[in-house]
């Protein structure tokens, strides 16, 4: 029992901090303007990115995933002039409908960013990736993509977020 209580005292504050940081994202986004804000200003608002991808034209794409605890994944592009050329939240209906059978895992990752969870099903030779998102800004949902043995999308689905279902007693 002591171990469980000690673990809860250590983990609970960290989870609260992650949730608080995700809640600040709209204010951070409001502080930035495409074509005006510099990389220094982006990093001041969002911190260091998880990954940076260098594009052929010399611009850089910075990833700011909020998974698994949040409901967003941001990508911010910094042009060759050092200014933010785009800021996009990837977990939205437009991107979900673009996930179609035959896409590779790399293509899905480019569309949606880092998943909240990946799970391998050895007997079926499948892998499922999940992203948490807010539908219409309110209901917490899970978008799942199934990859077949060939590593390509075989299907996708939307379901209620099991964390919310468990917490609400549904």
Give the strand line-up of the largest sheet: 1-2-3-4
Average pLDDT rating: 86
Largest sheet: 4 strands, antiparallel
The amount of helix comes to 25-40%
Count of β-strands:
8
Could you state the order of secondary-structure elements as H and E? HHHEEEEHHEEEEH
User: What is the end-to-end distance?
Assistant: 28 Å
Strand content: 25-35%
Principal-axis shape equals globular
CATH topology of the largest domain: Beta-lactamase Inhibitory Protein, Chain:B, domain 1
Give the CATH level 1 class of the largest domain.
Answer: Alpha Beta
Radius of gyration: 18 Å
Q: Which parts are unreliable, with pLDDT below 50 for 5 consecutive residues or more? A: 3-22
The number of distinct structural domains comes to: 2
Number of helices: 6
CATH A-level architecture of the largest domain: 2-Layer Sandwich
Counting helices, strands and paired strands, the structural category is alpha+beta
Descriptive overview:
The chain has 2 domains: 2-89, Beta-lactamase Inhibitory Protein, Chain:B, domain 1 (2-Layer Sandwich); 93-168, Beta-lactamase Inhibitory Protein, Chain:B, domain 1. Helix content is 33%, strand content 32%. The protein has helices spanning 2-23, 25-30, 39-46, 93-97, 105-112, 162-168; strands at 51-54, 60-65, 73-78, 84-89, 117-121, 126-135, 139-147, 153-160. A 4-stranded antiparallel β-sheet has the order 1-2-3-4, with helices on one face. The protein has a 4-stranded antiparallel β-sheet with strand order 5-6-7-8. 20% of the residues are buried.
């Amino acid at each position: 029992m002591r171990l469980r209580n000690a673990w809860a005292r250590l983990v609970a504050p960290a989870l609260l901090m992650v949730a608080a940081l995700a809640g600040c994202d709209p204010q951070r986004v409001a502080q930035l303007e495409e074509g005006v804000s510099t990389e220094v200003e982006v990093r001041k608002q969002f911190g260091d990115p998880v990954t940076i991808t260098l594009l052929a034209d010399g611009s850089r794409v910075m990833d700011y995933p909020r998974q698994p605890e949040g409901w967003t994944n941001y990508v911010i592009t910094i042009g060759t002039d050092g200014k933010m050329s785009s800021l996009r939240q990837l977990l939205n209906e437009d991107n979900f409908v673009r996930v179609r059978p035959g896409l590779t895992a790399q293509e899905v990752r480019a569309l949606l960013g880092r998943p909240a969870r990946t799970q391998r099903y050895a007997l079926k030779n499948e892998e499922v990736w999940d992203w948490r998102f807010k539908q219409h800004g309110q209901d917490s949902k899970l978008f799942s993509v199934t990859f077949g043995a060939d590593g390509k999308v075989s299907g996708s689905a939307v379901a209620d977020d099991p964390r919310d279902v468990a917490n609400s007693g549904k």
